[in-house]
Target: Probable lipoprotein
Amino acid sequence: MKLKFVFLFLFIATVCNSQVILNALEGELWNNPMCSNKNISKTPCSQVVGAVLNDNASTPLGKEYDWNGAGGFIDGGTNQALIEIGNQCWFKRNAINLPSNFDPSPIWNYDPADIDVGWSGFYQGGPYTNEGRLYQWSAAMNGATYERAQGVCPIGWHVPSDCEWQYLENTLGMSIADQQFEGLSLIGRQTGSVGSKLSLYVTSGTNSTGFSGLLTGFNTTEDTFQNRGATGDFWTSTRDTSLMPMPGLAHYARNLYYGNIGIRRYRFNAKYALAVRCLKD
Model:
């Protein structure tokens, strides 16, 4: 009886903040050793205050919700602002707000010695519909450096971690080996055709999740805009601390590419400016 009680207590304590510690509760289902002991948010959109189901039948792998809290945070407003995929609740469109610690946005004058100054802004010629802002990493994180920080997200939301993206990818059928694969190669991270499920604008794109990933491009370390229409790049809140003598190389991101059915996992220099999708705590 004592063992049963202890297990029940641990289960309740773990689920209470809508967090799942994977090695304790999800290990047999996921079994990704890279993400053992990592917190993974699994809060359905139905638990978001002010969210109202407005589902699109053409996205069978996701459920859309209107949300009255989207104003100023999610490009495109409140209509179908959230998407629930595998019990995770994500922004359906890119973040658009200025981070409070970098408002107004710092001026970014390129110089070889420049560092990430917390710049954010629109792709050259923008803003473009539903594409949101591009953020240098410190702007995306609103000055924080710890994993799963609130960053530019509303209260009760955060910049998703590398492992939370891996959990999403697992939900959509990616193998564990591909989840862990890192790099720009088109060979890895193909199982499950995750990129095609997240966007209409990649190879065989169906957007069957409703994630509606756009190919928004990025701003480079030289302060030049590139790849709009070719790639969609999203920050995670995870750094590889083993590279901390070279912090610019240590920030994980995700990349949708027009010629790929998968989604790539690799590290960007913090001075690059990428899009952000927030995840509910």
About this structure: The chain has two domains: 2-91, 100-280. Residues 2-15 form the longest helix (14 residues). The radius of gyration is 18 Å. DSSP finds six helices and 16 strands in the chain.
